[in-house]
Amino acid sequence: MSAPVLSVRNLRTHFFTRAGVVKAVDGVSFDLSAGEIMGLVGESGSGKTVTGFSLLGLIDEPGRIVEGSIKLNGVELTSLPDAELRARRGKDISMIFQDPIATLNPMLTIGQQMKLAIDAHERLGKRAAEARAAELLTQVGIPSAVARLRSYPHEFSGGMRQRVAIAIALLHRPAVIVADEPTTALDVSIQAQILFQMRDLANETGTALIWISHDLAVVSSLAKKLAVMYAGRIVEQGPTAALLRDPRHPYTAGLIASLPAMATPGTPLVQIPGTTPSLLSLPTGCPFAPRCELATSDCNTEPEITFVGDRGWRCFHPVSHARELTT
Amino acid sequence: MSKQSTPLRLFWAEFRENRIAVIALVVVVLLILLALLASVVSPQNPYDLANLSLMDSRRPPGFVGSGGYTHILGTDPQGRDLLSAIFYGLQISIQIGLAAGLVSLTIGTFLGITAAYVGGRIEALIMRLVDLQLSFPAILLALVIVALLGQGKAQLIGALVAAQYAYFARTAYGAAKAERGKDYIEAAVATPLSTRLVVMRHLLPNCTPPLIVVATVQIANSISLEATLSFLGLGLPVTEPSLGMLISNGFPYMMSGRYWISVYPGVALIILIVAINIVGDQIRDQFNPRLRR
Amino acid sequence: MLGFIIQRILQAVGVMIVMSVIVFFGVYAIGNPIDIVIPPEATVEIREEAIQRLGLDRPLYEQYLIFVSNLLRGDLGRSFVYNIPVLELIGGRLPATLELVLISVVSATVIGVTLGIYAGYRPDSWIAKTIMAVSVLGFSVPSFWVGLILILTFAVNLGWLPAGGRGDTVQIAGLDWSFPTIDGLSHIVLPAVNLALFKLAMMIRLARAGTREIMLTDTIKFARAAGLSEGTILRRHLLKLISIPIITVFGLELGSTLAFAVVTETIFSWPGVGKLIIDSIAVLDRPVMVAYLILVAFLFVTINFVIDLVFALIDPRVRRGMSA
Fold first, then answer.
1. Interface residues on C facing A, Cβ-Cβ cutoff 8 A
2. Packing angle between helix C239-267 and helix C273-282, nearest 10 degrees?
């Protein structure tokens, strides 16, 4: 296997609020190789988005990365000065957000916004910049791209706007793109289009993709490997197929069991009992223990992640294969 | 997490973190107490003409007058003890500010919520009127109304209300309209609950935070506006001088160096208004969900 | 575009009609209408004659029509005090007020927006806190009081600047202006500062609030994620986004400053329309009061109309919406 383009180790991002320290990300580690697509799955509040922002060094006050390492192409990002971090954002690593209506500036034309993103990293003449912008728009499937450069965001549909955002993220052929639920706000039919287009783009350009989503079904059709987050931690990670077939963490098992596609028609969907704990008042030990039917007194201490081959999980009592399939 | 965290307690905990806001709150409370107790703490009753002597007029701070006590802040052109006049003036200013603020609050909230709840033509009518008025500066409206109605406490409060109710109406309308569109209100309307119950239980509580913010600002504005009108000679009668009137009385003597007649009432007025505004600012920041941490 | 302009002009006319009704009922119906045209010391015969001549014995709607038709012919009566047509009187005073208001509002906007953006961008820095403290003061302290202190400090104690009047003026386009002469400029400084301080505080708050909200939006996050420098984000994104509320308020403030000039002009004896209206209220010179109200309403409507046009020019959403 080639050296990973992105290597994250034991990332912890905490928010120091009035009500207490919110450990939004508390122990996240993974590797990503060129062109690879990783799904980052979890409920809202599990820390997936904060993980994404941490990778780009875009954590606002009162939050900060308190521990861990993020290596992009071998360069440690967490200790970089702001100016150098900025020089890498958009160039080596970029991000796409959930709501394309909110991300583009309504007062600037698409061309102006793309020019700003180009100028941030290269000196290109007006004509060359326009050509690059048009090329990217064409690549993400926007017809008559040259003419569209003069359009304003409100003249595009939601799906088209998201394509524009993707084009901006791709402008400098970054090594990694963090996509934070980029299709959630779109129509289902457009969702699928964008999903597969992103997969093809990742293949063609060698850009690695972190696809953040709460929807296990959507991500698993796209990503080669998965990381499941719960209460700020990755509780299980591994190749998609193996993880879906044979989940080891009880939370992953619960998620998979609650997928409609997994259910026997006519029977009620399986639910995970209880609710997501508040990050302000996590139980000591395994945060999933209160909802877990396999929990024992062992779970009062927090399990470290156990790696077996290319899979890993944070659990003292991993689900056994045979048992899960029969229930 | 040792203490129980009720919303009010959390609000107070956050408020307490801004030391300046806490000081401002203490100042506001102190000034209100001083105003309430004006007749007790003042060395003199400045409205009782029998107490006044022209011999004592326009004396500098520290002067011992015919009453046999020291005028700590000096005296005004009518021979009133300035300190006493300030306490009484504070009382009038606060009285008028509160009265105008509360009446505006009531009328404005009623109109705003009615517009948002009823909708249709009534909504259009009320809000057009409110918008038209909002585009007009409050001071001008107050000026015209006082000019038309004549002088006096009731007229003055009327003018202030006419100039300010629109802010409350806009605010209440905005909050209620946003809430009205939500599903749970639709659901509440669909159930056989009375209109009053829906408004009181659902719409009004949601309008409360922004209305509290506007109310603090508008009470401070009322006090300031009253002082301005009094300064222009359009406020209260001279016999019951508010802070603005005291300042106005001293203005002609300023050029000749008798600064205290205007300056001390002015300082009192400003401390009052600034303190209310600082408290209001803090509440506004705490209510703004987008700035929350 | 043409349709948009026509629609706005119709709206403006509508507002003016409403205003004329309000002023008519306010002054003619609530006050005693005869007092508006006849000095209080006039004899009974003159009063009777005037009531006949002006049709004050006719029904109210007829009176309103007479009022409006006089208005349209530019006939707003004569001032009791100066005994010249009101329109002429106000017209002569208007340049002084406009000069003061424009200088104040423009400088308040430029300085206030700059400070406000800084305060919103670095809300926790001590400079930002100082700016906000100053703005709370500027916002809270009544402007008549600021005027007094300015006079006390710079005119009485230091003797640097004159306390009142307009100073030397220069005729440009048939009107008198103070700003081109040194003496005139020295006279305009204090009242302009007085008038500007309140607006400055307002602009600071507005720009700060706008900046804080905009900086939290996904638009800015996305720009940061694309690697734009903070300077570019402020100059290209923030300034564009914040311009809409700023321009709205600029227009509204232009109008309200016109009204606030009443206070400043009184303190600094600035011979503008504000001073005129206060004097008129004091001596019950009602034709002047009526004319002033109509004039202010007209200015407001005009300003709002211009602002709408400016919006149409800068906001692509409105612009495209109109051509469609």
1. 124, 216-219, 221-229, 232, 236-237, 240-241, 243, 314-317, 320
2. 50
Instruction: Give the gap in angstroms from C-alpha A64 to the nearest C-alpha of chain B.
Output: 14
Reduced to 3 states (helix: H, G, I; strand: E, B; else coil), residue C30 is helix
Q: Which residues pair with A208 in a beta bridge?
A: A176
> Is residue B92 one of the residues assigned to a domain?
yes
Q: How many domains does chain B have?
A: 1
Q: Which of A61-75, C31-45, C230-244 has the lowest mean pLDDT?
A: C31-45
User: Which among B1, B5, B293 has CB closest to A62?
Assistant: B293
Closest Cβ opposite residue B232 in set C149, C256, C266: C266
Which of A278, A216, A235 lies closest to A45, judged by CA? A278
Pairs of residues, one from chain A and one from chain B, whose beta carbons lie less than 8 Å apart = 13
Question: B101-158: per-residue pLDDT in tens?
Answer: 999 999 998 998 888 888 788 888 888 788 777 767 777 777 777 777 777 788 888 8
A232-236, C5-9, C14-18, C79-83, range with greatest mean pLDDT:
A232-236
The answer to whether B254 contacts C152, with C-beta atoms less than 8 Å apart, is: yes
Q: Tell me which residue range forms the domain holding B281.
A: 14-39+79-291
**H helices then E strands: how many in chain C?**
14, 2
Element (H, E) at C61: helix C60-72
Output A321 or B259, whichever has higher pLDDT. B259
Beta carbons within 10 angstroms of residue A184's beta carbon: 14
Average pLDDT, chain B: 78
Judged by a CB distance cut-off of 8 A, whether residue C310 touches chain B is: no
Cβ contacts of A20 on chain B, cutoff 8 Å: 1
CATH superfamily of A6-92+173-325: P-loop containing nucleotide triphosphate hydrolases (3.40.50.300)
Interchain contact, A17 vs B293, CB within 8 Å: yes
Locate the domains of chain C by residue range.
92-284
Q: What are the structure tokens assigned to A305, written together?
A: 């992640």
Topology of the domain comprising C92-284: MetI-like fold (1.10.3720)
ipTM, two decimals:
0.88
Q: Is the preceding peptide bond at A62 cis, omega within 30 degrees of 0?
A: yes
Long-range Cβ pairs for the range C268-271 (8 Å, 24+): C268/C147, C268/C151, C268/C163, C268/C164, C268/C165, C268/C190, C268/C191, C268/C194, C269/C164, C269/C165, C270/C96, C270/C97, C270/C100, C270/C164, C270/C165, C270/C166, C270/C191, C271/C93, C271/C96, C271/C165, C271/C166
The string of DSSP letters for A5-18 reads SEEEEEEEEEEEET
A219 pLDDT above the threshold of 50: yes
Q: Which chains touch C (3 or more CB pairs under 8 A)?
A: A, B
Q: Give ∠ CA A89-A49-C124 in degrees, rounded to 5.
A: 70
- Side chain identity at A220, as an amino acid letter? S
Q: Are A23 and A232 in contact (CB under 8 A)?
A: yes
Residue A233's SS3 state is: strand
8 Å CB contact of B1 and A281: yes
Q: What is this structure's pTM?
A: 0.76
- Cβ-defined contact of B17 to A18 (cutoff 8 Å): yes
Encode pLDDT of A60-118 as tens digits. 888 999 999 999 998 999 999 989 999 999 999 999 998 888 899 988 999 999 999 99
Instruction: Map out the domains of chain A as residue ranges.
Output: 6-92+173-325, 107-171
